[in-house]
Amino acid sequence: MSVDAKGRSGKARDEVLARIRAALSAAAPVPPPPPLPPPPAPPDLLERFARRVADYRARVTRAAGEVEVARAIAACLGREGGGRYAVPPSLPSSWLKAPAGTEFVVDRGLGPSDLARLAGSVTGCALAVAETGTIVLDGGPGQGRRAMTLVPDHLVCVVFERQIVADMPQAAAALADAMRTGPRALTWISGPSATSDIELNRVEGVHGPRRLDVVLVAGGPEDAGGRGEGRAPQPPPPSGPD
Question: Distance between CA atoms of 59 and 191, rounded to whole angstroms?
């Protein structure tokens, strides 16, 4: 490229940039965005969670309080026809009233083959998420080992109303304190284990229990004088105007 061509190119560039600057300086300022509307009233987390869980083909059994947890668990096990069910050592004994044909086996290190021969397992949870119908286990009190909740075909999980948070950000915030005490494996359960092949044929039980029963308890563990096993840390309040 000749010197004259370079000069013309540079002059053209300067002219284009000058026109852009002039146009920008003459443009009207962009108005600020309108204020956000006030946040909606808090949803009924219990009912929302129950709907989401049912969408995943899990069965929901209601309990009016902790005093009814044993009855609700027995109803879940009775529908399955009994069998041997693993329970973590820290599960409250008041929850365990075995119906006819059912035996509870305390998991003190059962091996994979032993767990596979069981009918299922019964646990509490760390918290639950209303928006997604997800249950979170963190290996805390009343929850037991991951293997105990993933290997048997049937899982019965007790969820208290006060353990339900609105969405995933609140769940992460609520679990943060527990995670700081030491590394824990988190299990996020959204319905029974299921996957689909290339033809979209649904197959259940590949990566975890093929049947999920959720015992949904109004209130919290402490309402009946319980020790609060498995109670989730309280999430931070939502931001917004008072």
Answer: 9
